Amino acid sequence: MLQAIGLTSARHRGLPPAVDDLTFEAGSGSVTALLGPPGSGKTSTLRLMLELEPGRGVTYFRGRPLHRVAHPAREVGVLLGDVPGHPARTVRGQLRMLCAAAGAPTSRADEVLDAVGLVGLGDKRIGTLSLGMDRRLALASALLADPHTLILDEPAEGLVAREADWLHGMLRSHADRGGTVLYTTRDPKEAARSAGHVVTIDSGRLLADQEAADFSRTRLRPRVAVRSPHAARLAAIVSREARAARRSVEVVTEASGSRLSVYGSSCAEIGDTAFRHGLPVHQLADEVGDTGPASRPRDSGVLGDGLRDNGLLRDGVRDCDPLSEGEGEGGDGAAAAARPATGTGAVAATSRRAAGGPAPAVESAGAQLPPRIRRRPARGPLRPVRYELRRLFGVRSTALIVAVTLVASAAVSVVLARNGRAPLPNVLVAWPSLLPLPPAALGAGLLGALSFGDEFRYPALAAGRGTVPRRLGLLLAKLAVSAGVALSLGSLGVLVSAESLRLVYGGDLVQVPSNVMSLAASWSGLTVGCAWAGLLAAGIFRVTAAGVAAVLAVPVLMVPLIEAVPKAPTARSMSGLPGRLRELTWLQWPHEADRWVLALVRVVAHPVGTALTLSLSVLVCTYLFTSLRGRVRW
């Protein structure tokens, strides 16, 4: 069961909140429609429920708020807008990446592709999908971790009737398996046909909370609102005359006893009837759609506590069966809403298996869901690492950046070695004095910036973890993967440069320097530091450009500032530092490790190393501060 209590969005510039003290619930085993016109606050309501925007109130998913759920993807499946994936990523690659994040086996991607009819389109790019195929992929992403609750924002908008029927059949099948389904719509007829419960809102406030049959009877068809001190007598007279004339007229007496809702008649007919029988009428008006009063929220569970009668429409007593009527707007919708959905015997939608085939034919409103995940992998550190690896290598931009970096390193090394005056280490890493950083460091920084920049531009994890995936496990995975990629890119850059120099100038130019260990430590620290600076800055400012700017700021701004600091006339020596560290920590490491410690100290003492260390320290502290404010989880 899903329970939303007191949802209120934050005010912006003195404007009224988009959602104002909204309380409702969606029961398990049923489909609930959140109905409202455009601008009524439907999307803001969903984002408040998913903790994607600031506000007040709480939403319980089977008794727990979302930030208290250990595995959000297994509890809630979300469809908000289009597929939140990189347009260059393949359909199957997108689902496998999300499988790694949700802890589902990789085979789950093929199962959901089969269920939504996209088996033949697994190798297509997301950016080339049509609207109907895009919605199918979004639904597959929501069903990937076998969640209990589905939350969808206008899933059938823009779809043809056949695709919309298939989609609602999938939702009913999920509800029939015991799940909770909540979706938004602006079409009252769609809500009456496909939902078992309808929650109507306008201007962020609750108008009605009704079962589908009551919604179809009281809020879809045109009616005449009558208020009279002799309402019961007038209702009996109108019903008797309608039966005598064999006309389909329904009279509903409201709980207050002085108000009637008459369906299938007009103000003129009701006025004439009241005049002929000498009955006074205090109100006589036509009401269509949602202009009339609404029913009060259901008194059940947590929502029943403290809810008072606010004057909304009470449950009425019917004189005749509205489901037997064919006249009036929404008559078909009422009959459809009254029929219980039966998904256990739903007919599966047939799909073509040929690669690149068109959309499958929909034979019925029912649909077959993917099988449940029988065994869920245990929680471990490799889950976010697998997700990050699939995210990184699932698009062509990574290979393009690596190729451009290696080609640039080779070209700069050949040009730099031509005059013979540049030191060999600078030639091998392709770092002339004109460039702020060598190509390998710039490439590592760009890949690091894209690591978090793509998370915000294409927020595949937003539904389960908030606007930014503020999980320390994911951060550590990104740091580890970006460090490995940076070291690999730096090593490949040096090897490609050395091979280019041997090919152009012969093998005598490339010699192994005596201080190769210190140079290797410096080069590794530079590439990894640039990758981490780009990653952390993009995670803080939520854009890739900020990560690239942070990488370039180290040599352009920080290094000149550090070099401008006046040096003391006499400097103290740090000789013997490894021995003092060994005494301080009571650790007995091998004496060969002393060289690595001194090499690390020399790297940090270099102006570039000092600038990079300071930048990383500030970025780490800032990221942790923003994460702690955003309900950080492991």
- Strand adjacency order, main sheet: 5-6-7-3-8-9
Described by strand count, sense and barrel closure, the largest sheet is:
6 strands, mixed
Q: Rg from C-alpha positions?
A: 33 Å
| Fraction of helical residues | 40-55%
Number of helices: 22
**Uncertain runs with pLDDT below 50, 5 residues or more?**
290-365, 464-469
What is the tally of beta strands? 14
Q: How much is the average pLDDT?
A: 79
Concise synopsis of the structure shown:
With 634 residues, the chain is an alpha/beta fold. The chain is built from 22 helices and 14 strands. Helix content is 47%, strand content 12%.
Question: How would you characterize this protein structure?
Answer:
There is one protein chain. Helix content is 47%, strand content 12%. By secondary structure, it is α/β, with parallel strands linked by helices. The strands form three sheets. The protein has a six-stranded mixed β-sheet, sandwiched between helices. A five-stranded antiparallel β-sheet has the order 13-10-12-11-14, covered by helices on one side. Helix 6 (161-176) links the parallel strand 6 and strand 7 (180-185). Helix 13 (396-416) runs parallel beside helix 17 (472-505), helix 17 (472-505) crosses helix 18 (516-541) and helix 18 (516-541) packs across helix 19 (544-564). The chain is elongated and about 115 Å long. The two termini are 26 Å apart. The relative contact order is 0.09.
